[in-house]
Amino acid sequence: QVQLVESGGGLVQPGGSLRLSCAASGSIFNINVMNWYRQVPGKERELVAHITSGGYTNYADFVKGRFTISRDNAKNMVYLQMNSLKPEDTAIYYCDAAVQYRSGTECDTDDFWGQGTQVTVSS
Description:
- It is built from no helices and eleven strands.
- By secondary structure, it is mainly beta.
- Strands 2, 4, 5, 6, 9, 10 and 11 form a seven-stranded mixed β-sheet that branches.
- A hairpin with a 4-residue loop joins β7 and β8.
- It is elongated, with a radius of gyration of 15 Å.
- It starts with a strand and ends with a strand.
């Protein structure tokens, strides 16, 4: 069906930058909204940023001015450029997408998640 795979996480010092990528693959007709979420152990998963197929973006207040979400519709990819990272940005980052895909002989729509990529901000 459809798979989402994140990459680009790692260890970075406070004030540093990372760029996360998420690639969607499978029998995809169209991808609507693509999101980045993050989760810290023991806490609920929270929405970081959101981008529509038309390029409209929205950000959580805690990342506004520091993070930028973008997408490449031709490659079925979404990115998260993270600048001025803080220790409190440490989390597992997940991408999520609403995907129209081929299911047998039909077209179906579902929400898919990646496996997550760890981002650690520490000196």
